[in-house]
Specification:
heterodimer; A: 221 residues; 8 helices; B: 248 residues; Ubiquitin-like (UB roll); Fumarate Reductase Iron-sulfur Protein, Chain B, domain 2; 2 domains; two-stranded antiparallel sheet; 7 strands; 2Fe2S_fd_BS (chain B); Succinate dehydrogenase/fumarate reductase iron-sulfur subunit (chain B)
Chain lengths: 221, 248
């Protein structure tokens, strides 16, 4: 029997990228849903945020899994990119990549890097203050603070602009990443066309929704 | 047609190589690209210069020998063709044409436009076959009924000529389309299913050892493949590989 390469083969790596990507897209969908609530009702947004921020299962099980997923997806993305560059040590004098593949599919490392930079800003804005508030300063639970904290961040036009720009790159990343994930886990069949259409909608609606949320709070403060 | 050719010249595997500009005249639009290079080489020989080395064999699109990266695309700007099937009518009088060898660490340049694609042979040796007793009592393959749909899909995969355009065009130099075609060709047939798990594990292992890049599903390989090998084969190989790995 041939030896399994489940841990280090090129196929195992792409399957791992796909599964972590699908998991992150699922997270993105729920994040989108919760943030969208802030446009319609501050109270609903506050109560969902309070639940997410205080539920032990979410805080101490799902949140660490999510962080591992994010870190893994980024590290593996850079590792694969380095390996892929090594696979062509001498480049072409003329390479017409646009002739046969989309910009989004050829530049996942660029869109991914922008998303990584965005995440650093996003963690600085929300996650680190949240961790300090709850687990370092041990402040009492306040169910009404979330909407105010969110809206406050989007007063700055620079931050609102940076967030919106990042969501455009997120859209391009999802544009290729969604359908690519299914191909990587071996799903290319009669459902592929429908799945690609759904992926196209997902890659437009979710980032556009985040832009709308940022602009809404910027102009309604 | 009058053309300017920018051709990669490299004396041998150790030489650094460089792009060199040439002028050529008297090219007919109905010539194949390789015939244009024949005319060019004749011009070089008559001028006492070194002709450019390039691979070719059948010149009817079935051997996979002719390679060449032309104006930034494997086998040039036409679709579903090898370089011998590419015609000069795809270009305009006065055009500048860039001609380079297929580039990949696993396809080292031998000379000028000739690359060593024996890494593909080694992948084939690792599992691209079925083990059949050929000592005189071989059973006719046609005695085993095969579903028409599977037979057609296996045949489509078997049309891969191993030219390496998929590797050359992929931004990652991935050989997934080639390997998946060879894996699918057998995985879909009862004769190949006996060794399916070993085959996919061994071929992928060899592919990785040869230094090809990782597939990121850009789909460029499928577009540039002269035989139209589908990405469905890569999805099938991924399934076969994960299934074989999980079974241990």
């Amino acid at each position: 029997m041939a030896k399994s390469g489940l841990l280090k083969s090129s196929i195992a790596k792409k399957v791992a990228m796909a599964l972590s990507g699908l998991f992150l897209m699922l997270f993105l969908a729920q994040h989108f849903f919760i943030n969208m609530m802030s446009v319609f009702s501050a109270d609903v947004f506050n109560s969902i945020s309070h639940f997410m921020g205080t539920n032990p299962l979410i805080q101490f099980v799902i949140q660490p899994i999510l962080i591992v997923g994010v870190v893994f997806h980024f590290i593996m993305g850079f590792v694969l990119d380095i390996q892929n560059k090594k696979a062509r040590p001498v480049g072409y004098a003329s390479y017409n990549g646009a002739a046969n593949a989309s910009w989004a599919s050829r530049n996942m490392i660029i869109s991914g890097s922008v998303i990584l930079a965005f995440l650093a800003l996003h963690f600085y804005d929300f996650w680190f203050p949240e961790m300090v508030y709850k687990y370092i300063e041990f402040n009492p639970a306040d169910e009404t603070r979330y909407f105010h904290e969110l809206a406050e961040k989007f007063v700055s036009p620079v931050r609102t602009g940076l967030y919106s720009l990042s969501f455009i790159l997120l859209s391009l990343h999802l544009r290729h990443g969604f359908s690519s994930s299914f191909q990587s886990i071996g799903q290319n069949n009669k459902y592929t066309k429908g799945m690609k259409n759904f992926g196209l909608w997902f890659s437009v609606v979710v980032p556009l929704g985040f832009v709308v949320i940022a602009l809404f709070h910027h102009f309604n403060h | 047609m009058k053309l300017t050719l920018k051709i990669w010249r490299q004396k041998n595997a150790q030489d650094k190589g460089k792009m060199v500009d040439y002028k050529i005249d008297g090219i007919e639009p109905d010539m194949s690209f390789l015939e244009m290079l024949d005319v060019f080489n004749e011009q070089q020989i008559n001028a006492g210069e070194e002709p450019v080395a390039f691979d070719h064999d059948c010149r009817e699109g079935i051997c996979g020998m002719c390679s060449l990266f032309i104006n930034g695309e494997a086998h040039g700007p036409d679709r579903g063709v090898t370089t011998c099937q590419l015609h000069m009518r795809m270009f305009k009088d006065g055009d500048t044409i860039t001609i380079e060898p297929f580039r990949a660490a696993a396809f080292p340049v031998v000379k000028d436009l000739v690359v060593d694609r024996s890494s593909f042979d080694r992948i084939q040796h690792a599992g691209g076959f079925i083990s059949v007793n050929t000592s005189g009592n071989t059973i006719d393959a046609n005695t085993i009924p095969v579903n028409k749909k599977d037979a057609d899909a296996a045949f489509d995969a078997a049309t891969c000529i191993g030219c390496g355009a998929c590797v050359a065009t992929c931004k990652n130099s991935s050989a997934m389309l080639f390997v998946s075609a060879k894996v699918s060709q057998y995985a879909l047939l009862p004769q190949g299913q006996v060794e399916a798990a070993d085959r996919v594990l061994n071929m992928v292992k060899q592919m990785d050892e040869e230094g090809f890049g990782n597939c990121t599903n850009t789909g460029a390989c499928e577009i540039e493949c002269p035989k139209g090998i589908s990405l469905e084969n890569i999805a099938r190989m991924n399934r076969e590989y994960m299934s074989a790995s999980l079974k241990g």
